[in-house]
Specification:
By secondary structure, the chain is an alpha+beta fold. It folds into two domains: about 15-170 and about 185-350 and about 410-500, no CATH class; about 350-410, Glutathione synthase lid domain (Dna Ligase, domain 1). Helix content is about 35%, strand content about 25%. The protein contains 17 helices and 23 strands. The protein has helices spanning about 15-30, 60-65, 70-80, 80-90, 95-110, 150-165, 190-205, 225-240, 250-255, 290-300, 310-315, 320-325, 330-335, 340-345, 355-370, 390-400, 495-500, and strands spanning about 35, 40-45, 50, 55, 115-125, 130-140, 170, 185, 215, 245, 255-260, 265, 270-280, 305-310, 350, 375-380, 385-390, 405-410, 415-420, 430-445, 450-465, 480-485, 485. The strands form six sheets. Strands 3, 5, 6, 19, 20, 21 and 22 form a seven-stranded antiparallel sheet that branches. Strands 9, 10, 11, 12, 13 and 14 form a six-stranded mixed sheet that branches. Helix 7 packs across helix 8. The chain is globular, with a radius of gyration of 23 Å. Magnesium ion (MG) binds near residues 137 and 473.
Amino acid sequence: MSIKKEENGSMRLRWPIEDIVAFAKRYAITHGLLCLIPDNLDQATIVPFSLYPSPYSYSHFKFIWSIQTAYNRLYNRISLDDEILEKALSPVIPLDDFVERLWKLHRNCKRRQPIQLDIYRNDYMLDTKVDKMRQIEFNTISSAFAGLTGIVADLHKAILHYGIENCHVRELKLDEKYEKSSTIDLILPNEPLKKSAEAMIKAFELYNNENACILFVIVPNERNVCDQNALIDEIQKLKPNIHFHLKTFEQLTNELLYDEKTFNIYLKSSYDEIAIVYYRAGYIPDHYINEKCWLIREYIEQSRAIKCPTIRSQLAGCKIVQAYLTNENIIEKYINNENLSKNIRSTFASMFAFDNNQTREKYINLLRQNPNDYVLKPNREGGGNNKYDDEILKLIENKENHLNSYIAMEKILPPKCTTCLIKPNGKHLLHVECINEIGIYGTMVTNVDTNEEYINDVIGYLVRTKTTDTNEGGVATGYSVLDCLDVSQNNNELSKIFSQEL
Ligand code: ADP
Ligand code: MG
């Protein structure tokens, strides 16, 4: 961050840091950077956030931004190719009931809706070992925080204006040519919400029944309500007449009507026809508490409603598929531009599975000798599942046969920055060493029968920042905080200012 200095003045905080933290919390509360408290769903608290943006390389950011539409198309095509899905998933289907169940559902459900709507989030870290952006995972279901991440960019602008003398914050438009400036601050704008809403509206229009509604499938006791409602509000700003319903799978077991003649689905209470089913649940087995919940998923999948995502698209986001795509000449089949496939390939970290008897022993030895260089990941979403360091050794020693449910991924070593993490109940961590994970949101609306692409867009970003001693990610799980980027390439200038004693 570069701050315009007074000729004779030094850059400094205008107020004590406690004052700035108080300002930040008030801003967060006023602007809906909130989630509900786990044991009291009538009360909200702040979603953890950083006090100021993290320094980040603009060229690396720009790079992952520039390849997102190609990534969107790649995953869209993978999701439509049963052969590659089956090949990629086959090692885990016999081992993982959840993946097996999704796969069988996908195979048994007839497709009755050619329109596919996807809201993706492609997560990366910058790997200092090679100075390249490396993909952590590609999320195809329930890509959260598009409703909140824009608030953080605005919050940071407000904090800098409030807290630092002579601070002129400028937004850098992404299509602007970036020239290093020594006098102006640069923060990236971030508006994934508006474009997510536009994609949903486009899909809604293609469904072609303006009296139909949009259904959000949510988890019981959902806490991330501001994020979800922000999307509803944004859609209603543009299309005030669209109705919304938010239901859990269990509620739907009583309330969903599936018409076997027309393949339409309705909600019993209102008899609203459902145009779009948007899943903010359904990505882990616990979300299906009984067989009836699975039946609901089946009805929806074979209905005429547009699903975000379809089961095939959800399956394309499995980590075993991500690992499979790193094999030679796979992505090249789907991307006919050599440069683009090279760029996408450059984001792949080394990944391997343990299903091949010829390589299994070699890979186990590799892990034994270098457990700190790898992460073991099961095919699960939602955080808290990965194994690191000694846990990897323990798994090899005690439960070697469980290895088949995991894929190994080279550990990424992101650059460190110092920042202040603001958490609920005053549990702030001031001036701590952190790392960043960047997610790029993409939207697609396609007709999979005609290959028409109505929308293929890169729409915004998410920054999650966590202390260097935390392995897992996840804001909802309490590991990370929401953040935003300062691309002026004046490394850690802001952290120096925020750590100044007054
Ligand atoms: P999920 O979010 O589905 O649980 P992820 O693949 O995103 O699974 O892993 C969870 C977290 O673990 C990430 O947010 C990241 O912080 C960390 N992580 C995952 N893969 C790596 C890796 N290869 N190197 C370093 N950290 C990783
Ligand atoms: Mg993740």
